[in-house]
């Protein structure tokens, strides 16, 4: 029995989902296009009960079955966090299908390639919020394969692309048990209850967006879907997950629209979290949490209430960790089964080493059981015989009040091997004056050999993101093009 089916029996009239205004008040929907067997409340209500949600899921599941979907079928859902995509995500689980959520900003050629690589049989575009979910085309692809019995026995499964921050993304394969195990520790830390309202503030093509769904389902709380007025909606919920850029914009929104927001708890992640931002939240009476997570572990692994420490928190339940030569090793109930691989009978390539641990490639130290991330081993480079950890330089530069985001990358150098280069976004338009001010402020804070020798505007890089992180590999490619063209 799925969780929404259980809640339908236990609390059928309790609110499950709060809809965006443009859905609940959409008067342009042609209801005559919908068969009478489909529920009309889909277009007339501002919120759905568990019973109504279950009805929609069951009928969409039948809709998928009529299109040919069966146990083990691969379904790709294109979209960010629309109501339609949430419904198809749950209906696909109900159908025991494999789900792969894809970024709508991906070019068609990349979507085709990812579907081929991950044995996707059906493609559904959920990127338009006003769509009637029952009228969306379900495109059958030519990737159908006979899956091994041991794979089918693990269904339903989710396939979630890694960030691809250092290369091509891989699809991590999770069971429902893994997602719920990850949710367990987070909901306890953040005091999520049945009456809590969590905003679906991150895209479902990222593991952090899916994690919101599993925390909602774990606690039978309320899921608030995002509409056109993102930050207004953020003021009306109790819980949310944000990346630093969203948090900065939320604080700016509150400055321009003074009010006492209802939100009580915000989980922050995605990159370095400036303590100045968490301090502002504290002054507003909002409790923030800092954490460390990854796709392979179904999202958050370490977390804590934000404080002045640069650590990422403490190990949550259902996870295990140890440091081996400063590398973070992980395992536990949250860990993915492996990475999906085409043209292999087993289909799932294990991601653990011979001793059963996942080696994260993250460099860290532990102080009083709190984890401190020092960077990634695969980002480190050597300059004049000295090890350069880009994240160390980035953290110091981010302490400057006029800096919004920065990436340190290596530039080849005949004398030193490599030298650090900064790709940076200031809170004001990029200028030589701002660069000179920054360099003056860094004196005494950075060793001379760690100073960037060149600065480029992050805005000009125009790198595509996965909604959470900017890809370092894409930045490195762009930087190489800039250097070669000069």
From TrEMBL:
One of its GO terms (biological process) is menaquinone biosynthetic process. One of its GO terms (molecular function) is ATP binding. Signal peptide: none annotated. Keywords: ATP-binding, Ligase, Menaquinone biosynthesis, Nucleotide-binding. InterPro entries: AMP-bd_C_sf (IPR045851), AMP-binding_CS (IPR020845), AMP-dep_synth/lig_dom (IPR000873), ANL_N_sf (IPR042099), MenE (IPR010192). Residues 41-340 form the AMP-dependent synthetase/ligase domain. It comes from the Bacteria. Pfam families: AMP-binding. This is O-succinylbenzoate--CoA ligase.
